[in-house]
């Protein structure tokens, strides 16, 4: 990766955040994409991390976290937990001052949206935050939500006041049959605020990222982001990329936002964490200067009518195409910059780091 290698080996940049190392913290979904960078930042600051995973005995799955701890100031301890099992997180949470709840599926193609998306998101949130009610040491809970809890389709952004989504807006257009992933994020975040509002001992802070891009800490990331970037690079979009409005943000900025949300005294409410208002074609074109000679990256926009015709064959609904392709996505990230101190790196840097890593791990072949 040449000059980019530093981005993977350096500690997460946490200037301006006074990280309290006197109590351990819990991170749910510890082997996940965002969680990996949160844990890296916490370990680098000297925190003891209680990592909740499905199977602590799966050494291959947690090896990168073990290695990370061995070269950091902090320590890591693993706990078995299940999103759907009531009380599953109590042991891991005991003694923790902060809870980071990142565990939630991010996939588009599922057989049963209720079982595969809604239940893990909502019941998992209920179990984790109800556990916080039972564990007296917890003073703050940071939940990873999504901009999907604010909007469903890019046309919703255009229809928002000023054509821009803000933290005051809630998604009212997703459903079990239209963008069930977005629906799962709405329901889960609503449940988080319901539980938080029913007590006054711990504070809830919610991070709402747009599409997360950038390199992963884990060896086999399952985030939908990697599936999208693979399609950009493997020739799937060689005839053109749809101009589908979206926001993107580097995973390292998302991780920093979580840690700031946990430790800055004034952090409160929801935070849109999104670095760039863009579309699928722009995302692909950001890779062309460095990788255009070796990979079949799209050079032009795919006409909307062609995307509409092909939609059912590539796992998209024609309603989704109508409401996203050719529509501008715009979000206001001022609160994250002002209150959490987040600064956003160039989109090209994030995409190049991500793409380089995928090549090295043979997820892409030139």
UniProtKB/TrEMBL annotation:
<dbReference type="Pfam" id="PF01370">
    <property type="entry name" value="Epimerase"/>
</dbReference>
<dbReference type="GO" id="GO:0016616">
    <property type="term" value="F:oxidoreductase activity, acting on the CH-OH group of donors, NAD or NADP as acceptor"/>
</dbReference>
<dbReference type="InterPro" id="IPR001509">
    <property type="entry name" value="Epimerase_deHydtase"/>
</dbReference>
<keyword id="KW-0560">Oxidoreductase</keyword>
<protein>
    <submittedName>
        <fullName>NAD-dependent epimerase/dehydratase family protein</fullName>
    </submittedName>
</protein>
<dbReference type="InterPro" id="IPR036291">
    <property type="entry name" value="NAD(P)-bd_dom_sf"/>
</dbReference>
<dbReference type="InterPro" id="IPR050425">
    <property type="entry name" value="NAD(P)_dehydrat-like"/>
</dbReference>
<feature type="domain" description="NAD-dependent epimerase/dehydratase">
    <location>
        <begin position="25"/>
        <end position="267"/>
    </location>
</feature>
